[in-house]
Amino acid sequence: MSTPHPVRRGRAVSDAGRLAALLLSPTFVVLGLVVGYPLVAALRESLYQSGQTVDADGFVVQGDQFVGLDNYAGIFNGPAAARFWNAFGNTTFFTVVTVAVEVLIGVAMALVMHQALRWRGIVRASILVPWAIPTAVSAILWRWIFQADGVANAIIGNQVLWTTEGWQAKFAVMIADTWKTAPFIGLLVLAGLQVIPRDVYEAARVDGASPARQFWSITLPLVRPVLVVAVLFRVLDSLRMFDLPFVLIGNRKESVETLTMLAWDEASNLRFGPAAAYATVLFLYVAVVALVFVKLLGADVIGEARDRTKQARAPRQPAPRVTPEVVPA
User: Fold this and answer.
1) How many helices (H) and strands (E) does the chain have?
2) What is residue 32's DSSP assignment?
3) Looking at residue 13, what is its pLDDT?
4) Cα separations (Å) of 134 from 94, 145, 177, 258, 301?
5) Could you identify which of 24, 37, 48, 154 might form a hypothetical disulfide with 64, taking C-beta atoms 3.0 to 4.6 angstroms apart as the criterion?
6) Phi, psi (rounded to 5 degrees) for 194
7) Rounded CA gap, 307 and 292, in Å?
8) Under 8 Å CB-to-CB from 45, ≥6 apart: which residues?
9) At what angle do helices 167-193 and 135-145 cross, to 10 degrees?
10) Do 133 and 181 meet the contact criterion of CB atoms below 8 Å apart?
């Protein structure tokens, strides 16, 4: 069987690449306008300060003034450093704790929804209702539950001020966030469970594997790719948490203030330079977490696709011709 000429094959690959770039160009333009331009504008704004300042000669200067990296230096070393590190700690704490709890509850939800129950459709719909409710509406609902005379205090039989400063405010935010977003992980894990062949479980039962053994050796490894994607989405979403603690607890509450709330507070006070600096730091934080996450858990989909493309483009070696051996009579 003859192989295509290397020159013709390279030309075909080049034409296919140009066609792919042409077809994807509208998407690149939209991404550049929606993502690229705001990012560049935020980086530019973080290098300026607006308002009235006094120059070295004692004259009042009004407008945007180029300050270089002073906004970033003020985040880490200036008077606002304590507030920044508190918001950074709250953001990291909410991300780690809530995502861990949501994974456990979401996987349990998926296992329940996957069972052949009589009212399986109703169970799935009821579990997904919290995820479908808007976050602001969910926060208002939980604010009513956590009132001084609300349902939460009536259940525990104690007067706890949930929406004030303290550990109880953090606990209230974690409960509300877990209630709302655990069904999201459950939905994605359920999609992964439905593609697992039942023959695998039947063979495991024939071999005498217990349900716990089947879960650790069959279910968890097979749903791992879906679970990794679900956890990644939740981690990135939790790092940008804003509306839930803002509506449930309130603004400028040290116990629950996150980086997005800090950036919003600076922008609402017309300090756009520091606000852009906070947003840029959060963007870098999210990018680093996403990169480390996919590398550690082996979810580098782009790298795997690139390897497959290289293998497909590599020239195929012709199969060796086998000469039949002549056996003397």
Assistant:
1) 15, 4
2) I
3) 62
4) 19, 17, 12, 20, 31
5) 48
6) -75, -15
7) 20
8) 272, 273, 276
9) 130
10) no
For 83, 84, 91, 249, the CA distances from 236, given in Å and listed in that order, are 22, 19, 11, 22
10-29 burial, b if ≥16 CB within 10 A, otherwise e? eeeeeeeeeeeeeeeeeeee
Tell which residue, 178, 189, 228, 179, has the closest CA to residue 110.
189
Strands (E), the chain: 48-49, 52-54, 60-62, 65-66
Q: Which two tokens stand for residue 170?
A: 């953090």
Nearest to 259 by CA among 288, 235, 280: 280
Per-residue confidence of the chain (329 residues) as pLDDT tens digits? 555 555 566 566 677 778 888 888 888 888 888 888 888 888 888 888 875 555 556 555 566 777 888 888 888 887 888 899 999 999 999 999 999 999 999 999 888 888 766 777 777 778 888 888 899 999 999 999 998 888 999 988 888 888 888 899 999 999 999 999 999 899 889 888 888 888 888 888 888 888 888 888 888 888 888 888 889 889 999 999 999 999 999 888 899 999 999 999 998 888 888 899 999 999 999 999 988 888 876 554 444 445 544 554 555 555 455 455 544 54
- What does the DSSP assignment read for 292-312? HHHHHTT--HHHHHHHHHHHH
pTM value is 0.78
- CA-based nearest residue to 116, from 216, 194, 184, 205: 194
Q: How many CA atoms lie within 13 A of 120 on its CB side?
A: 10
Give the span between the Cα atoms of 213 and 204, in whole angstroms.
9
Q: Are 245 and 23 in contact (CB under 8 A)?
A: no
Query: Using CA atoms, how far apart are residues 302 and 189, in angstroms rounded to an integer?
Result: 22
